[in-house]
Prior knowledge:
By secondary structure, the protein is of the alpha/beta class.
Amino acid sequence: MKAIVKTLIFAAVVAVFSGCQSGSLDDIKMVKDNVSEDSAITMSRSMKGYELYSWKVGNDWKFVMVDGTNSLKSYDDIVAQPFVVTGVDGLLGQLKALAQGEQIFWNLKQIKGFAMPSDADVAKVTQYCKKRGIALEVISW
């Protein structure tokens, strides 16, 4: 009986570790592309809130939220994040996953390449956050 239990435990450990292969950003993008706006996905609570970045590519606004940290990030680090969304509606879809009481810092801190969308778009995001009970603070030194 002990041999069977040991065999089952060993098989479970092997199964877990065989599933822990590192994936590529393409794998992450594929998962993101298959998530619908109505999915019940929620983001984990962040100890230091989230940092929100925005920039323009052609005619499109891009947005990404990353875990808040004390470390400085470069433009390249930020735009290479796997969950970059296009347009304010894409951002609102991400904000839907945040818990009430979460904090977001919209960062434009002296990192070349980042900008704010139109006042109307900023107002739309601000109103949505207020409605959802999400604290939004714009930081632009």
